[in-house]
Every structure is written in structure tokens, then in C-alpha cells.
């Protein structure tokens, strides 16, 4: 089936060429970073995680969200999700690849990746994160390809795939839970020291991932004729609406706990994020943009009249996706370091090489997704 990825329209090849150019620029920027070290980024002693880890966290959530179409289809036999399940699984493949690459570039020296393999430690959360991410990548690629191959041959899915599907459902929850534990396990960082972090991660993931899946489905329908089904798209939009509602509720609970208790070590991080601290307010505009977009997306998702109109639905999905990217990206990572345990405030701004490397990794992920989706389009266009 892979041969179907090597034939397509001029638009398809132009899109791939654009992605390859972005990847090339990102790779050259990475060589620059490899030569000079992480000093070419905006990272510092006080803010040691930035744009790379922010995107890593976000795309782990996008990958985990594939369970939102897999679970109803395989466990509850909701047939409306049939055409969208493979799309969700292949989206998870691209998202996991991006997550792994962001960890790779954040380590500085590539050889450090081998330390996790050569000196594995079950007490290390990074070790378990490596296990669950690579396992989830393997599961989704195998299940998605086997399902598409059976569809291509006009046969029922192979029997060995179904147990893997059942394994992949709790596995999807685990990848974002372990990621949340990496942060909430750091006792010296009060901003992340909350048992609510893992549930917040999952709730926002189940909004951003389905939002991206809907946008991709609408784009495929417009440019390739591949229709995932209006009913499936609407059901996924409803899932995103409920997930956004839970996300908003968790955020309000967190804000009440922090500001009502007024514990300075917890409160200062949120003050920096929402209002600025000691004249430092670089993240404040981004925070309020995120909150505004979440509110707009929730209202548009919740209202059936706007949710059922595809152009408005696309806008609401885009708003939810951008809002959660800001919230789980720099809005989650940077305030955890500011102020430092010693009370220092260090402004973090991503540099140009850092941004270009990030764009290159995004392009890598979407290149993989585009090729896999082209195979799906080729198989279904034949049928």
C-alpha cells in the first residue's frame, strides 16, 4: 500500500516539498545548536526547559487523544467512527514522533539519548516515559496499518489486532499520565506540585487532539474527497466540547485553591502568568489570549447551530488547538521556573535557531502524517 504515497496531485507534492524545505532549515539550525550547544537557545540556568519541552508536552497529549475515536469504535461499536479511527491512529504516530524528536533536541548532545538505554533505571520517570511513548508509537502504527490493509483487501480485521487495540486504550492514558508525573514529581517547583496536573493534561489533550483531527478531516474532505462522515465529525466535536468544559473546570479549581489559600510559593507563579510579577509580564498577553480562545471555542462547540456549520466548526477547532498549545506549552513550562526557588525572575524568549528547529520538527511530524493519510486516501478512493 505504501506505493500510494508516491502518486498524487501537484498540490500534494508542493505540500511535501514545503515540508522538506522547513525540515532542511530546521536541520541546519540543529547542526548550529549541536556545534555551539544549547547556548544558541533562550534557555538558561534558571529556565532550563522551554519551547522544546513545551511542544513535547503538547504533542504527547495530541497522541493520547487518539483513544477518543478508538475507544467508542472498538469498545462500544459506534460504527460512525469507522472511517475516522485510522486517521486518529496515524495522527498519534506523527504526534509521538514529534514528541520524541523534541526530547532529542532538548538533550543537547545526541549521545545522551543512549544513557536511557545503556543505564536504565526503573526509578526514573524519563525511563518510563521512553517505554510508554515508543510502545504507543508501535501500537498505533501496527494497528492502523493492519486495519487499513484489511480494508484494502476487503477482509475483516486480523484477529491479533483486537487485543492490541484493548492494550492501546489504557496505554494512551499512561503516556500523558507519566508525562504529568515528570512535572508534579518535582517538589521544589510549586507550580507543578499538584495532583490535578495529570487530569488537567488528559482533559486538555482530549480537546486539542480531536480538534486537530476534525480540522484535518475537513481539509481532507475539501481537497481529496475523503469524507470521514458528518456524524463522526459531530460526535468528535461533542467530545471536544465536553473535554473543554472539564478543562475550564479544572483550571478554575486550580485558581481558587491557589488564590484563596494565598500560599506565596504557589501564588507567585500564577501571578506571573496572569498579571506579571515585579514588572516581568512577557507571558501575560499569551495567557489571556489562550483563556479568550478557550472560551470562544467552548461556546462555538456547545452551540449546535455553530457546531454543525463546517466553516465555523473549523474556526472553533483552530481556536481550541491554539489555546491549549499556549496553555500546555509556554504557559505550563516557563512559569514553573519563574520565580526560581531563590526568588529570581529570569525572562525566557525563544531564539531564532530554537524556533527554526521547532518548526522543522513540526514539519517532520506532518510529513509522516501526510504520507500516511495519502495511503488512506489511495486505499479508500479505490473502493
Q: Briefly note the CATH topology name.
A: Formate dehydrogenase/DMSO reductase fold
Structural class: mainly alpha
The CATH architecture term is Up-down Bundle
What summary fits the major beta sheet?
Answer: none
* Spatial separation of the terminal alpha carbons: 13 Å
Reading the helices and strands in chain order gives: HHHHHHHHHHHHHHH
Proportion of residues in β-strands? under 5%
Mean pLDDT: 88
| Poorly predicted parts | none
Identify the CATH class.
Answer: Mainly Alpha
Shape: globular
Number of helices: 15
Question: Helical percent range?
Answer: over 70%
Q: Please tell me the total number of domains.
A: 1
Number of DSSP strand runs:
0
Folded structure, characterized:
It is built from 15 helices and no strands. It is mostly helical and 383 residues long. The chain has a single domain (2-382), classed as Formate dehydrogenase/DMSO reductase fold (Up-down Bundle), CATH 1.20.1630.10. The relative contact order is 0.17.
Amino acid at each position: 500500500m505504501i506505493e500510494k504515497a508516491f502518486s498524487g496531485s501537484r498540490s500534494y507534492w508542493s505540500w511535501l516539498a514545503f515540508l522538506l524545505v522547513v525540515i532542511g532549515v530546521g536541520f541546519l539550525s540543529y547542526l548550529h545548536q549541536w556545534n555551539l550547544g544549547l547556548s544558541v537557545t533562550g534557555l538558561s540556568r534558571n529556565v532550563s526547559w522551554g519551547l522544546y519541552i513545551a511542544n513535547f508536552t503538547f504533542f504527547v497529549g495530541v497522541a493520547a487523544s487518539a483513544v477518543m475515536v478508538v475507544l467508542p469504535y472498538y469498545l462500544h461499536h459506534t460504527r460512525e467512527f469507522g472511517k475516522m479511527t485510522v486517521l486518529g491512529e496515524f495522527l498519534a504516530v506523527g504526534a509521538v514522533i514529534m514528541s520524541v524528536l523534541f526530547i532529542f533536541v532538548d538533550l543537547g548532545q545526541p549521545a545522551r539519548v543512549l544513557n536511557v538505554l545503556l543505564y536504565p533505571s526503573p526509578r526514573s520517570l524519563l525511563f518510563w516515559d521512553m517505554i510508554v511513548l515508543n510502545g504507543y508509537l508501535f501500537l498505533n502504527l501496527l494497528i492502523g496499518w493492519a486495519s487499513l490493509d484489511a480494508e484494502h483487501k476487503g477482509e475483516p480485521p486480523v484477529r491479533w489486532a483486537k487485543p492490541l487495540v484493548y492494550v492501546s486504550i489504557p496505554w494512551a492514558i499512561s503516556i500523558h499520565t507519566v508525562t504529568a508525573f515528570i512535572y508534579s514529581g518535582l517538589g521544589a517547583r510549586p507550580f507543578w506540585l499538584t495532583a490535578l496536573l495529570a487530569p488537567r493534561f488528559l482533559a486538555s489533550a482530549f480537546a486539542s487532539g480531536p480538534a486537530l483531527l476534525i480540522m484535518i478531516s475537513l481539509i481532507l474532505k475539501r481537497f481529496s474527497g475523503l469524507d470521514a462522515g458528518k456524524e463522526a465529525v459531530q460526535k468528535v466535536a461533542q467530545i471536544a466540547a465536553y473535554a473543554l468544559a472539564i478543562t475550564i473546570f479544572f483550571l478554575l479549581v486550580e485558581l481558587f485553591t491557589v488564590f484563596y489559600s494565598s500560599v506565596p510559593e504557589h501564588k507567585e507563579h500564577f501571578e506571573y502568568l496572569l498579571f506579571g510579577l515585579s514588572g516581568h509580564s512577557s507571558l501575560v498577553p499569551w495567557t489571556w489570549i489562550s483563556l479568550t480562545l478557550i472560551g470562544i471555542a467552548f461556546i462555538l462547540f456547545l452551540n449546535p447551530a455553530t457546531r454543525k456549520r463546517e466553516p465555523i466548526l473549523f474556526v472553533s477547532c483552530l481556536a481550541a488547538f491554539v489555546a491549549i498549545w499556549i496553555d500546555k506549552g509556554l504557559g505550563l513550562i516557563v512559569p514553573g521556573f519563574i520565580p526560581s526557588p531563590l526568588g529570581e525572575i529570569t525572562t525566557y524568549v525563544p531564539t531564532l535557531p530554537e524556533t527554526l528547529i521547532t518548526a522543522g520538527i513540526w514539519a517532520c511530524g506532518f510529513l509522516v502524517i501526510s504520507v500516511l493519510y495519502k495511503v488512506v486516501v489511495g486505499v479508500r478512493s479505490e473502493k
